[in-house]
Write a structure and sequence with these properties.
This protein is mostly beta strands. It is built from no helices and 13 strands.
Length: about 170
């Protein structure tokens, strides 16, 4: 069994990983075309979790990724992709899903009673969930602007009690 998984860096696809089953293990190999002066680490994104795949090794103008992982850590989970980052995310993990019927992609962090989802706020791009804008709040994560929303365990928005009803 061999699968190909796209690798992203800062939201842009820069390479791919090959996932190959080897007995009780899964072997990940791949490369990316990213040039960086920083040490980048590779992560595999599954369901609501991230599995570290180690440091991407520079060789010429490419970064190479090689790692073997117990298949029991991944089998039964949906693999969403892989990404490169300077460090492991602080509580926020890559996230894809739906909010009130709208497809969305951003980062998420588990909170008491639900999940906080944060979508990158990019001034040059329209906000895809504009009809739901009143449910979001502004927040900065790692110095970048986001619009965040709290979802309950069923994926429904949690409305704040701060504003009393008329």
């Amino acid at each position: 069994m061999t699968n190909t998984i796209p690798v992203q860096y800062e939201g842009i696809t820069c390479g791919e990983l090959t996932m190959e089953k080897q007995g009780l293990f899964l072997r990940f190999t791949g490369s990316c075309t990213i040039q960086s002066h920083e040490i980048l680490r590779a992560f595999l994104e599954i369901d609501q979790d991230v599995i570290p795949l180690g440091v991407a090794i520079p060789e010429g103008n490419r970064l190479h990724i090689q790692q073997t992982v117990l298949s029991s850590k991944i089998i039964g989970h949906k693999v969403h992709g892989a990404f490169l980052a300077v460090r492991e995310p602080d509580g926020y993990l890559p996230w894809r899903g739906e909010i009130c019927g709208y497809s969305a992609q951003g980062v998420a962090c588990k909170k008491e009673g639900g999940l906080e989802v944060a979508l990158a706020l990019e001034p040059e791009k329209p906000f895809d969930l504009l009809p739901l804008i009143c449910l979001f709040s502004y927040k900065r994560i790692d110095g970048k602007p986001y619009l965040s929303i709290l979802l309950d365990k069923k994926g429904n928005p949690v409305l704040s009690d701060a504003v009393p009803s008329p």
